[in-house]
Design a protein that fits this description.
Layout: E1 5-7, E2 14-20, H1 24-29, H2 35-40, E3 50-54, H3 62-70, H4 75-78, H5 82-87, E4 91-96, E5 105-107, E6 113-120, H6 146-176
Antiparallel strand pairs: 1-5, 2-4, 2-6, 3-4
Keywords: Membrane, Transmembrane, Transmembrane helix
Organism: Parasedimentitalea denitrificans
Transmembrane segments: 156-176
Length: 179
């Protein structure tokens, strides 16, 4: 199969659903390190962001219910593929965007793996003008010389020592009864 699934750089909040047309033991084997990247035609993937399970495990909830209620995908995002998702049997694989570490990736799945669709929440697009102030630049604060840093540390240490000694003196005068 010549299907190529493109994941853009920096993508987040998307879940891709794949149908696994394979025996249960083959689907379980995909959880082993190195197996899934090989059948997807990529170098590496974060397996913590991949779910592989039989649809029968979802019982009455079903795959559509799992996506909408368990993964917080808005129902209107699934509307176009609802029937197709409900007809799936066997094992499915859900891959979250975080599985690719924010890098652009092109998946070329093996022929037993069929891409069903990508679903996700509406993303907030944070935009704004770049800050031009000098204080916004990294390491823009004035740096003290090593000698000034040591002197500052000594002053702080001496101040703490003086406060502690005054407290001890006040406590001792209360206990002994000094005027």
């Amino acid at each position: 199969m010549d299907t190529v699934v493109h994941i853009p750089s920096g993508e987040r909040g998307m879940i891709r659903v794949f149908n696994l047309d394979m025996r249960p033991e083959q689907a379980r084997f995909l959880r082993e390190p190195g197996a899934l990247p090989q059948v997807l035609g990529i170098e590496d993937i974060n397996l913590d962001q991949v779910e592989i399970f039989p649809i029968s495990d979802l019982e009455d909830l079903g795959l559509v219910g799992y996506l909408t209620e368990g993964c917080a995908v808005p129902a209107d995002h699934i509307t176009a593929d609802r029937e197709r998702l409900m007809e799936l049997t066997g094992h499915v694989m859900l891959i979250r965007s975080r599985a690719f570490g924010g890098e652009e990736t092109r998946l070329t799945p093996a022929e037993q793996i069929t891409f069903i669709g990508a679903y996700g929440e509406d993303q907030t697009h944070w935009t704004g003008a770049q800050i031009q102030a000098d204080s916004a630049k990294p390491y823009s604060a004035p740096r003290l010389s090593p000698r000034a840093n040591r002197a500052k540390a000594r002053r702080i240490g001496a101040s703490i020592f003086a406060v502690v000694m005054l407290l001890l003196l006040a406590l001792l005068s209360k206990l002994v009864g000094w005027p």
